[in-house]
Amino acid sequence: MLFAISAQAQPSRESLDAVLEKEGCVTNDQNKAKICKYDYLADGKKVEAFTIRPLADGKYPGLVLLAGREGARTSLTFGTILAHRGFACMAVTEPGFGKSEGKPDFMGPKSIEAFAVGFKRFRRESFVDPEKIGVFGYSRGGMAASLLTVKLGKAVKAAVFGAGVYDFKRAYDETKFDGIRENIRTETGFTEKAIRERSSIRQMQKLKTPVLIIHGENDENVPTNQALLLRDRLTELKKDFEIRILPEHKHGQFKGDFISPVIDFFDRKLKGVSKRSATAQALTDSLSATKPVSMVYVDPLWFGAADNDRFH
Q1: Strand 158-162 to strand 45-47: parallel, antiparallel, or no bridges (unpaired)?
Q2: What is the pLDDT of residue 14?
Q3: Contact residues for 33 (Cβ-Cβ < 8 A; gap 6+)
Q4: Which of 43, 82, 46 has the alpha carbon at shortest distance from 62?
Q5: Residue 27: helix, strand or coil by DSSP?
Q6: What is the torsion angle, in degrees rounded to the nearest 10, for the CA atoms of residue 156, residue 207, residue 251 and residue 12?
Q7: What whole-number distance in Å separates Cα of residue 93 and Cα of residue 95?
Q8: Among candidate residues 290, 298, 279, the one with its CA nearest the CA of residue 86
Q9: What is the reported pLDDT for 131?
Q10: Residues 6 or more apart whose Cβ sits within 8 Å of residue 20
């Protein structure tokens, strides 16, 4: 069943959740988008997911959206912006968080395989062009996006890694917060094997996908040197990538300076748009003048409950 909401009566997050639970889908007339529950099974366990796509029938370039531990629901606003721009999106919650079942493994092999199962299911949908699918991840999801993109190879046609961790050992060594180290040890055991499995920088020789690395210059949650380390590794390997370091970006807040380069990159790589359009510039101008879109609220990538309090 489809539940329509007019532009004059957009729901709160709580009422949107209630409608999705009851009806399964909801339309956003203002942005000409449809959001639907899209839960699926991976290794016998439920993975929470949503699709966000344009209302008009057709095949669209697809995007898999991976957020931090706050889960797929934090991607719905950003996904609606992308749907309005002509992309079909699937937002997924990491196993062990939100309504996704399973044990948290800190974006380890089981989580990445769960995302891969969703990716393969999503690309078979009638509204998705299976030859034009990208991956977007931010924060903890940026880490996952880098690992998933390497795993899936040429099936991913473009990828954006936002504020992610790519050198797991170095992130562990350099963090200022004991809670982070505790969570890493608890979820992974912090063995050499666990470090290798979660460090995409060690796997980038297998990368087959053009990448945009995007990071805030003064990100306190995920140090900017993670982006620079990945930049240096991809340069060494002569991979196809771009990098944007944003001087004004705050972790988890998507304003025009963040959203516009992301859309521009996916437009070029998945739609064949050769240069930034006037509508993309108009989007930047309008978003810069409005309240930031919160992708992960103040999700500090991997903190436990005690550390989360510091950011509220």
Answers
A1: unpaired
A2: 72
A3: 27, 52, 53, 54, 55, 79, 80, 83, 84
A4: 82
A5: strand
A6: 20
A7: 6
A8: 279
A9: 98
A10: 26, 35, 36, 37, 50
Supply the pLDDT for residue 221: 85
307 token code pair: 């550390």
SS3 164: coil
- pLDDT for 305 equals 30
304 CB-contact burial (10 Å; exposed 0-12 / middle 13-18 / buried 19+): middle
**pLDDT < 50 regions, the chain:** 1-9, 278, 288-289, 296-312
Using CA atoms, how far apart are residues 194 and 199, in angstroms rounded to an integer?
9
Q: Tell me, what's the pLDDT at 302?
A: 31
Helices (H), ranges, the chain: 13-23, 76-84, 109-122, 140-152, 168-174, 178-188, 192-198, 225-236, 256-266, 278-288, 305-308
265 closest CA partner among 241, 237, 296, 295:
241
Interacting residues of 236 by C-beta distance below 8 A, sequence separation 6+: none
Residue type, 39: D
Do the strands 60-66 and 128-138 form a parallel or antiparallel pair, or are they unpaired? parallel
